[in-house]
Amino acid sequence: MPSTLSDNVIYPDLIHGAFVEKVRDVVGIFNGASANTMRLTSGSALGFEQRESFFETIDTVHRRDHEDLDTDVTVNAVQTDEWLRPTVLRAVTLKAYDLLLWLQGRDWDPETLSMMMGEKFALDTLKDRCDTGLEALIAAMDSESDMKHGDGSNKFDYKKLNQGLAKLGDRRDEVGMLVMHSVTYADLIDHAVEEKFDGVTGVTIREGSPATLGIPVLVTDNANLHVEQSPTDHYRILALRPGALTLTDLLTPTWETDKSVTTHGQAMTVRGNLHYQIDVLGFAFDGDKNPASGSASNQLGDDGSWDYKMDSVKSGPGVMITVEQGHDT
Known about the structure:
- The chain is an alpha/beta fold.
- It has helices spanning 12-33, 48-56, 99-106, 110-142, 158-166, 182-194; strands at residues 38-42, 87-97, 148-149, 155-156, 177-180, 205-206, 217-219, 226-227, 234-240, 245-249, 254-262, 265-280, 283-285, 306-308, 318-327.
- Helix 1 packs across helix 4.
- The chain starts with 11 loop residues before the first helix and ends with a strand.
- The model is unreliable at 1-6, 44-58 and 196-204 (pLDDT under 50).
């Protein structure tokens, strides 16, 4: 039924319900498809990978000399900075002018519009979480030379991908997902065709196939995977272990609406506040509690803001492989 004058409202409760339901649906699919290498969680659930990450920073077994009782056995302390993670605050806003005309022109009711807004906010915030999380993950991995393979001076081929995975030694089979730019993915498929591999299927996270060494691939045009260089751009490929990146909601989102009269007509403003934490496996963050991202004062994407706490690359998020655009023939 078309809206009436008394229906000129947006309902925060319906926004919240649609938001939570959409997030739950997408998160379940995403976590499963990514083999839990990139995990979206709530603050009420501390996953096994997080606990493992924490305790792997502590060396608990030391030599004891029974003939020299005057020498103390080494005891390592749990350091506070080994548990530091950045938190990100986000405001989600939308202002709709002439709401009544908007509703009547589409034959919508306010309830339908409120739920559609909730779903829209959910998808936008999940994309922001993934983009921001990848920015942090790439910066952290870039700070560790042992986690990197290639400097972009060579084009993609399977030998370079295999050499990158080899840096993980006997843990290379734990790699659950590759993350790459669409340009690199196109190079991979071109190379696979020439190598007579089968085609690759899937949608957002492509399913594992011979062309990807059986590993699922997340294809995203995240700017941090692209390094502008002259004469040919460089691209990063991330080979991730389970728990490499965890993005945790710390607070239940809150939504508010406000109706006002402006020079452009009656307006309805919707605002939501979000708060989530970024955990890169094996890394502590040395920066502001609510760091900037994607700006000149970007701490989150600065490799100097991340401190690796593990003794081996095998215990970290994985390996980052850098290649030149194109592929070897």
